[in-house]
Write a structure and sequence with these properties.
CATH topology of the largest domain: TIM Barrel
Number of domains: 3
CATH class of the largest domain: Alpha Beta
Shape: elongated
Strand content: 15-25%
Radius of gyration: 35 Å
Largest sheet: 8 strands, mixed, barrel
Bound molecules: ligand C2E, calcium ion
Structural class: alpha/beta
Distance between the termini: 126 Å
CATH architecture of the largest domain: Alpha-Beta Barrel
Length: about 575
């Protein structure tokens, strides 16, 4: 006995009201063919029809498409429908008894065609039913042709098809696409010890779990044996690939018992990333394979990049990420202080606090390596709080020891400024330490300013009102508007060190420094030049009326103990020089 067909949903795309009516009647009368009849949706133009398919393509079982729509030319409509949903069968309704048109429709992917004049309830229903059934078996065949029978993942051929498509798409974007291959360690032992059925179950289990953890846009295939491959498009950086690899590793790590046997499997992983590795699909996969073999040999750990440089960079970032949070709370981050001096007297007038990280092995890591990661992970707020508390505590200890202090400038990143409570936390830390607010300045960049104007301004207003100084860092490299500068409660502009470095040989750079100095004076801000390395620069900066100087010419950033000595001897020198001046006056 024939299975009763459930009520299919049919989308009729037709602009002629008379034809719509006729089709409705034919469907209703032919409804005796199924127990439940059908659901009919009508779209009167192509755009509307495509929209419906886009919206709920799965709910439509077949499309009846009029070939003469007002907003489609020839077979455009058919192509648009196929693009919107390639899985739904389309029956073309033609007006004229034209065999050529009909054949052409079939060549464009239509499942069948009917001449409107010939539409009878029975023929219409039969055409619909056959189209649906045929499409189903076509889809099933296609699925079988594309899948690996054991795991249900893409087979090798289908995987390469997906990879080619992803590479095409990546070429048109600014993003990266990773090929991540992995294989199961010691699968041969599992097969030998427990039999192939257990080995197969393990492969199935790994495939199932790894696939479940992927993004919708990623594709995973089994390339053969125990080797799997993933293509992950739309990545912002090559580093994202290592996250995918890590995830695979963690997922497989959670598998213990399979088919009643404790297997606790592990995988080795190799990565190649396009377009950093600008190779065709097959070469990319073989590159990822090469990295995989390195992992297999346990050289460089269970995950490796094909590219050596990328490999090193990714590993370094990975280590940083892994250890950073613990080391923030463990107090392994601290500040070095770089003196800032008066441009005429060279007296110590301030210092910039610069973050350093002493890792567990005792290696000091520069902020350029960890600040971007701290920002990306959001740990910058915790880090900033720790460093601030450290600075406040050290200033307090100087006061306690009777050592005269100078204001310390702390760098604040955009993520901190976005936090509404940032200023309040800062003020609290200062109050708690019992130091004066003017002992602290903050340095923010122009891009921070313009990226979160509202919150930033609120934060800055509060800081300013209690007397904390606000300096714009790296000035000249961003784009802040003059009106913004005028309206903000600023105290100083720091001329970016690249201009200072270039100013003695490049007139353009010198003119920029000149313009910044002039602007700064007009707006009554102090000007600080950073990165001062030689006397020629000092001469020029002084002539331009820059107020304060900072750079290796005076001192590199130093540990707190050394900074304390500088403050102490600075005070002694100042005392000495006043004595001399007094002696000179009395002489
Ligand atoms: P920055 O704020 O522009 O800091 C000045 C950088 O220039 C420091 O590098 C300093 O060591 C370096 N420098 C000082 N004098 C000279 C010189 O004469 N010549 C040259 N070539 N360089 C000089 P450092 O310490 O590596 O800091 C790099 C960047 O890291 C800083 O740039 C800042 O953007 C960021 N940073 C440092 N500490 C912190 C922090 O606590 N929080 C945040 N958010 N960022 C920080
Ligand atoms: Ca700075
Ligand atoms: Ca700077």
């Amino acid at each position: 006995m024939q299975q009763p067909c459930p009520a299919p949903t049919i989308l009729l795309i037709e602009d002629n009201p008379g034809d719509i009516r006729l089709t409705e009647i034919a469907l209703r009368e032919g409804g005796g063919e199924t127990e439940a009849g059908c659901q009919l949706a009508v779209a009167t133009c192509l755009r509307d029809g495509v929209e419906r398919l886009d919206r709920n393509g799965e709910a439509v079982d077949a499309v009846l498409l009029d070939i003469g729509l007002p907003d489609a030319n020839g077979f455009d409509g058919l192509i648009a429908i196929r693009n919107a949903n390639g899985d739904v069968p389309v029956i073309v309704l033609t007006g004229l008894s034209d065999h050529a048109v009909a054949t052409e429709a079939l060549r464009h992917g239509a499942s069948d065609y009917l001449e409107k004049a010939e539409i009878r309830p029975k023929t219409l229903w039969r055409a619909i039913r056959y189209a649906i059934e045929r499409k189903k078996s076509e889809t099933e065949l296609l699925r079988l042709a594309n899948t690996d029978p054991l795991t249900g993942l893409l087979n090798r051929r289908a995987f390469f098809e997906q990879l080619e498509a992803a590479l095409d798409q990546t070429r048109r974007s600014e993003l990266a696409c990773a090929v991540v291959v992995f294989d199961v360690d010691k699968l041969k032992d599992v097969n030998d010890l427990h039999g192939h059925a257990v080995g197969d179950s393990l492969l199935v289990e790994i495939a199932r779990r790894v696939k479940a953890g992927l993004r919708r846009t990623d594709s995973i295939g089994r390339l053969g044996g125990d080797e799997f491959a993933i293509v992950a498009p739309n990545l912002r950086s090559a580093n994202a690939a290592i996250e995918i690899a890590e995830k695979i590793r963690r997922t497989v790590d959670t598998i213990r018992v399979v088919a009643g046997v404790d297997l606790s499997p592990s995988v080795s992983i190799g990565i190649a990333v396009f377009p950093m590795d600008d190779s065709p699909a097959d070469v990319l996969v073989s590159h990822a394979d090469m990295a995989l073999y390195k992992s297999k040999a346990r050289r460089g750990g269970p995950i490796n990049y094909y590219d050596q440089r990328m490999d090193r960079a990714a590993k370094a970032r990975h280590v940083i990420k892994k250890n950073m949070l613990g080391d923030i709370s463990g107090g392994r981050f601290y500040l070095e202080y770089q003196p800032i001096v008066d441009a005429t007297s060279f007296a110590l007038v301030g210092a910039e606090g610069l973050a350093r990280w002493c890792d567990a092995a005792g290696k000091v890591i520069a902020p350029g390596e960890f600040i971007p990661i701290a920002e990306e992970t959001g740990w910058i707020s915790a880090l900033g709080r720790n460093l601030l508390a450290g600075a406040c505590g050290q200033i307090r200890s100087l006061l306690d020891d009777g050592i005269p202090t100078v204001p310390v400038s702390l760098n604040v990143s955009a993520a901190q400024c976005r936090d509404h409570s940032f200023a309040l936390q800062l003020v609290n830390a200062v109050v708690e330490a019992g130091i004066e607010p003017r002992a602290i300045n903050i340095e923010i960049t122009e891009s921070t300013l313009i990226r979160n104007v509202e919150t930033t301004v609120r934060n800055l207003d509060l800081l300013k009102s209690v007397g904390i100084g606000i300096h714009i860092d790296d000035f000249g490299t961003g784009y802040s508007s003059l009106s913004l500068l005028k309206d903000l409660p600023l105290d100083a502009l720091k001329i970016d060190r690249t201009f200072v470095a270039d100013m003695t040989r490049d007139t353009g750079a010198r003119q920029i420094v000149e313009a910044i100095a002039e602007l700064s004076h007009k707006l009554h801000f102090r000007t600080i030049a950073e990165g001062v390395e030689n006397d020629q620069q000092i001469g020029l900066l002084r002539r331009l009326g820059v107020d304060h100087l900072q750079g290796y010419r005076f001192s590199r950033p130093v540990r707190f103990e050394k900074f304390r000595d500088m403050l102490r001897s600075g005070a002694a020198a100042a005392a000495g020089s006043t004595t001399t001046a007094r002696q000179q006056r009395s002489a």
